[in-house]
Amino acid sequence: MSSVLATVICVVMLFWGNSDAQLSPTFYASTCPNVSRIVRGVVEQAARNDVRIGAKLIRMHFHDCFGCDGSILLVEANGINSEQDELPNLSVEGYGVVDDIKTDVENVCPGIVSCADILALASEILVTLAGGPAWKVPLGRRDSRTANAAGTSDIPGPDETLENLALNQRLDDANPDPTLDTAYLQKLRQACPQGGNPSRLNNLDPTTPDDFDNNYFTNLQNNRGLLHSDQTLFSTSEADTVAVVNRFR
Ligand SMILES: *[C@@H]1O[C@H](CO)[C@@H](O)[C@H](O)[C@H]1NC(C)=O
Ligand SMILES: *[C@@H]1O[C@H](CO)[C@@H](O)[C@H](O)[C@H]1NC(C)=O
């Protein structure tokens, strides 16, 4: 999956969600018993059209989960300073699929299921479609009526170091990341030359970009992490995160 870091952090978030005693996998058992089936129908169709939809929606769920309240879905309006207009939104896509799910769910159970729960359900289904594990999704999140645009600055950026939030990953000759595998770095320079098209995409996981697996961690061990904020988890030798990478691979 092209956004495995997001996935990993997202799963951590879901565990935090689990600790909330008010959430329950059977939250909609009497009010919308088919919600999971409805979400699955839309998501499976979307995955047939777009192999990246899993990465997109799991990432959206992660970005939303600095609250898990659906606030990322609120567009700019009177009194709402949309989170979508902040810098971290540039990597967030897939809003149309969420709209499609919401429409189908509303048709069957109007006014019952929160958008935050829809994102959580869609993420679990997409993880399983990409070969990952299934889990019972705790439900019962309430949607926010306000957005927290300033709060998007809490979302970690791709260029962050473990301890310093402002060190940039650079691919130019003057400042190569000293830890990156040379052949991989060479490929990246060809794929994304300086001054090239800034909207070009590159897989975060060069090995199995569309699968939910642990190659992300193997890649870090092989110095093939695309983002500095990823590679530094393994390359900062004194950091606690090295053991985490080794454990998950
Ligand atoms: C749930 O879906 C099944 C299969 O489509 C259907 O038979 C059943 O009536 C639905 N239940 C509710 C409560 O909508
Ligand atoms: C993200 O923010 C930019 C800048 O405000 C805006 O033009 C764009 O439509 C937003 N993208 C999404 C997907 O919301």
UniProtKB/TrEMBL annotation:
SUPFAM superfamilies xref list: Heme-dependent peroxidases
Catalyses which reaction(s): 2 a phenolic donor + H2O2 = 2 a phenolic radical donor + 2 H2O
Binding site residues for Ca(2+) 1: D64, G67, D69, S71, E83
Cofactor (UniProt): Ca(2+); heme b
Classification via InterPro entries: Haem_peroxidase (IPR002016), Haem_peroxidase_sf (IPR010255), Peroxidase_pln (IPR000823), Peroxidases_AS (IPR019794), Secretory_peroxidase (IPR033905)
Disulfide bridge positions per record: C32-C109, C65-C68
Enzyme class: oxidoreductase
A Pfam family recorded for this sequence: peroxidase
Binding site for Ca(2+) 2: D205, T208, D213
EC number: 1.11.1.7
GO molecular function, one term: heme binding
Top-level lineage group: Eukaryota
Annotated Plant heme peroxidase family profile domain residues: 22-249
Keyword terms, alphabetized: Calcium, Disulfide bond, Heme, Iron, Metal-binding, Oxidoreductase, Peroxidase, Signal
BP GO annotations: hydrogen peroxide catabolic process; response to oxidative stress
Function: Removal of H(2)O(2), oxidation of toxic reductants, biosynthesis and degradation of lignin, suberization, auxin catabolism, response to environmental stresses such as wounding, pathogen attack and oxidative stress. These functions might be dependent on each isozyme/isoform in each plant tissue.
The protein's name in its UniProt record: peroxidase
Source organism: Salix purpurea (Purple osier willow)
